[in-house]
From TrEMBL:
This is Nudix hydrolase domain-containing protein. Keywords: Hydrolase, Metal-binding. Residues 199-331 form the Nudix hydrolase domain. GO terms for molecular function: ADP-ribose diphosphatase activity; metal ion binding; NAD binding; NADH pyrophosphatase activity. Belongs to the Nudix hydrolase family. It comes from Cuscuta epithymum. InterPro entries: NUDIX_hydrolase-like_dom_sf (IPR015797), Nudix_hydrolase6-like (IPR003293), NUDIX_hydrolase_CS (IPR020084), NUDIX_hydrolase_dom (IPR000086), Pre-Nudix (IPR040618). CDD domains: NUDIX_ASFGF2_Nudt6 (cd04670). It comes from the Eukaryota. Gene3D superfamilies: 3.40.630.30, Nucleoside Triphosphate Pyrophosphohydrolase (3.90.79.10). SUPFAM superfamilies: Nudix (SSF55811). The keyword Ion transport does not apply.
Amino acid sequence: MFCQFSNFNQSIREMSNVGKTELPILRVNIELLSRTSLLCCNAIAVSANSNRTLFTLRTPKLHFRAQGRFSGVRIEGYLNTRRWAMSSTAFPAASGSEKQAEQADRIFSGKNDDYGGVIVEMTSEPMDPSLFVTILRASICQWRQQGKRGVWIKLPIELANLVEPLVKEGFYYHHAEPKYLMLVHWLPVTVNTIPGNATHRVGVGAFVMNQKNEVLVVQEKSGQFQGSGFWKFPTGVVDEGEDICDAAVREVKEETGIDTTFVEILAFRQSHKSFFEKSDLFFVCMMQPSSFDIHIQEQEIEAAQWMPYEEYASQPFIQQHEMLKYIVNACEAKIQDKYHGFSAVKTETGHSKKISYLYLNMDHNCDYTQ
């Protein structure tokens, strides 16, 4: 097998000062990268007369052995040293900035996840796409050797120009946030077990009743009930990292100015194909008010008031919808102390020691702490 490596003979002579009387033997080991056009290479040049090392070219561990000859330099054997990605027809050109040459010799650093994968968080520093691909391919070569499974690339919005190269290398979108895009690639030749993006959105509705058996209700300026005249519970979406009980307190305060304390979850509903085809979880929370003067959020709320519970429950829209009737009946049973929902119990998880809430129906005759 004979190999032609353009722009490489001069580099050999400059690096080793090889004369006509001392031709080097270049021992090379070659391994295919993720694409057939790229190889990984290990090489060492030694004197044919004295077996003295003249210089080395360093790349990852390799498995494909090649022997050839060019410009009086014979290629044979193998050596494992450092990593260098190269073309199957040419070494990287000797020209170019030293900084780029050093960067091309890199492997992306990342942290291991709990499932045999690796997570790479890119900085926002600009990067040339061709250099990025060179480093990415060398990194994938190493990750395959290490038996990595899923490779996650967290790409800041400043590096959106690298999306296309990533997709061409086999990555696909997983999820997006305002400041970054997460792409992932499954390396093994097995069934992809990477879980999908978040499947549910979580919402809350607040049942707030004062001592006069009046319920706190609002009319919205936007949404499906805009202009309908329907009075509804204050509702909203749980923020990222926010507990359900805290979200209910926040939403009531934002929409009406009323301060409340979470009592319990009375009911919850799951629906599908809701928000951008995602599923939806909606929790009806009973709240205890500690203030009573209403100050509406004018941007979202058209009106708010304390309404007699019977008047609220008798609205035609509620009477015509089965799910709303179930919610009204649960609230009514709670008022009469005939129904108990799910209380929030602050707990510590066993493995991570994180604090979270467990919602359960508390039997007051049972000691759950034993």
